[in-house]
Amino acid sequence: MKLTHHLILCTLALTGLSAQAHHHDSAEAPAATASAAQGEEWVAAEVRRIDPEQRKLTLRHGDIKSMQMMGMTMVFKADAGVSLEGLAVGDRIEFRPVRRSEGFVLLAWRRQP
Ligand SMILES: [Cu+2]
User: Fold this and answer.
1) What pLDDT is attached to residue 6?
2) Distance in Å, CA 34 to ligand 1 centroid
3) Number of domain units in the chain
4) Where is the signal peptide (predicted)?
5) Residue 107's domain is classified under what CATH number?
6) φ and ψ of 76, to 5 deg
7) Could you read off the pLDDT of 8-56 as tens digits, one per residue?
8) How far is the CA of 64 from the centre of ligand 1 (A)?
9) Ligand 1 center–CA 15 separation, angstroms
10) What spacing in Å lies between the alpha carbon of 95 and ligand 1's midpoint?
11) How far is the CA of 27 from the centre of ligand 1 (A)?
């Protein structure tokens, strides 16, 4: 139940992003382009659940500015070629998320310094 709620919040956040992008089409706003593009931003997270067969991670992530998404717990699918070896529940990591048509994808991860 809790997870479903968070996924709905994610969808709402992304809907808001699209709407705002349109408003910014004709705006000057050079400051907005200074932030990392989607897929390039490293986001702090804690591993809550690992599904090695489905290659899915449940992460409690911090704010994802490139997606205008607040911190929450949600599922990411590891991108092809991303190794989940050595990763354990409770680990604190940084990861690069991106949204694709099939869902939210983790492009890379590393341990928090
Ligand atoms: Cu989220």
Assistant:
1) 54
2) 22
3) 1
4) 1-21
5) 2.40.50.320
6) -125, 145
7) 555 545 544 444 444 444 444 444 455 789 999 999 999 999 999 999 9
8) 8
9) 13
10) 12
11) 27
Quote the domain boundaries for residue 61.
Answer: 2-111
Tell me how far apart the alpha carbons of residues 110 and 102 are, in angstroms, rounded to a whole number. Answer: 23
Q: In sequence order, what DSSP letters do the residues of the chain get, joined into one string? A: -HHHHHHHHHHHHHHHHHHHHHHTTT---TTGGGSPPTTT--EEEEEEEEETTTTEEEEEE--BGGGTB-SEEEEEEEPTT---TT--TT-EEEEEEEEETTEEEEEEEEE--
Going from the Cα of 104 to the center of ligand 1, the distance in angstroms, rounded, reads: 9
Closest-CA residue to 50 (of 11, 6, 82):
82
Residue-level pLDDT at 35: 72
Cα(79)–Cα(11) distance, integer angstroms: 20
Q: If you measure from the C-alpha of residue 48 to the centroid of ligand 1, how many angstroms do you get, rounded to a whole number?
A: 13
Residue type present at position 66: S
Report which of residues 23 and 62 the model is more confident about: 62
